[in-house]
Structures are given as C-alpha cells and as structure tokens.
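User: As part of a screening pipeline, I want to sanity-check one entry by hand. Below is the sequence and the SMILES for zinc ion. Please return the complex as structure tokens so I can compare it with the automated output.
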Amino acid sequence: MNEKQCTKCGETYLAEVKFFPQDKRGRSGLSSRCRVCHRAQMLEYGQTEGGKASRRARDQRYKQSEKGKAKQQEWEKSEKSKATRFKYNQTEKGQLRRRKYDQSEGGKASQKAKNRRYKQSEKGKVAIRKHKGSERSKMLNVVRMQKRRARKMNLANDYTTEDFLRGIKHFGECCAYCSVHISECKKLHMDHYIPLNDPSCPGTVCGNIVPACQSCNSSKGDRDAVDWVQGKFPERANAISEKIEVFLMADGAAF
Ligand SMILES: [Zn+2]
Ligand SMILES: [Zn+2]
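Assistant: Here is the complex for your manual check:
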C-alpha cells in the first residue's frame, strides 16, 4: 500500500480516503492534507466571513430546492416543531420578534386575513352572535362613540375599553355621581368630567372620564362638574367631587 505525507502536518498515512479526503483535482484523487488537517481547515474557514456567507448561500439554495421545501413542510407539521415554536414564543427574543412582526405590514395583513377567516367560520359566527348584545360589546360601542366625538373636535381620544372597565371597577360598578349600581341603571355612560365643549377639555382620555348613569350624564350635560354636583347633591357635593377628582388625578396625567 502507498503511503502519503500530509503537506500541512507532515504526518504519513496510508494513501486511502480513510486518511485523506477525496479531491478530484489532485493527482492521486486525494487531498494533499490529512483528514485531521482538512477538518481543522474547514472549521477555520467556517468562522471567516467568506465561509459564513458560503454556508448561508448553501442553506438558501437548499431551502429553495424541492427537497428542502418538502423537508421544511414535514418539519412544520411535526409535533416536535410545534413544541419548539411554543417554547421559542415564550422567550423574550421570541416575543420581541412576534411584536415586531405584528407591527409590520405583512403581520397586519396576516392578522386581518385570519380575523376574516374566523368571522366566516361557524365558530366565529357563533361568537359574534354571542358578543352582540353582550356587556362588553355595549361598552365597546360607548367608548367608540365618545372617542369619535372627541376626534371630530380635534381632541385627544386614546381612551380604551380597558380604561373604562378600570374606571367602572374603581367606582364599584356604580355611577360616579349618584352611586346607582349598574344593575339598576342598565348601562354606565362615559362622562367627560370636563365637557367636550369646554375649551379646557383634554378630550376622551384617561383623567377625564368617569362612569355615570344615563340620568346623571344627561342632567350634567355641558355644565361644570363641580357646579352641577353642588346643585344636584348639595349635602354630599364635596365628598362626591373629591372622590372623583382623586380618581381622575390617579387615572391620567390630564390634571
Ligand atoms: Zn495533516
Ligand atoms: Zn348617576
């Protein structure tokens, strides 16, 4: 058997593919470097920019090949990939990526399409029927309507349903003014503490909205809250106004 010396480390091995990787360019059909040196050289190349780029290009080609696509689909359907994705989504990196995607054009479009599909599905139709007439849907409409009013007047309007729910909870599900419970007045309205028509109104924002029953809401109208409370509840006026202002001050930066 022939022997062959590695040009790199100088070791001598049998001239076989077991010791020297194949290389068709060489005279012997074997690489001039032994497997140990060849491997070291490959690893080193892999760390260089050129090596990294070349690997990326190879991966890319593979992903676009029929074989690569089939493999990818097979992987995505597997239980293991679901578990991996789930785990990744729980990590900080995964969540950051998710948020970034959700805010991208592609992410928004995909979310819209998904919503549309859901609305047209049997399950979605049932959910919509259930939602219509629900407390939450009434509340959403109340918030939307008030925000629209503020928007039309070019006032800030970033109040959300969650904000309103927080306010309702704060006042024990009661009108902030007369304290009637939601169960007795059907619905709590969003009252603009400083009315939208008032030049100093900050808009439909945290710090200017309290829950109020229909009766108080329409009776107060565009009047100054403190004056109106004084006239409507003379004995408890100070307590009511103070309670509301403490809440509004904590709820928003508007005051
Ligand atoms: Zn060698
Ligand atoms: Zn009331």
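Points to compare against the pipeline: The longest helix spans residues 135-152. The two ends are 94 Å apart (CA to CA).
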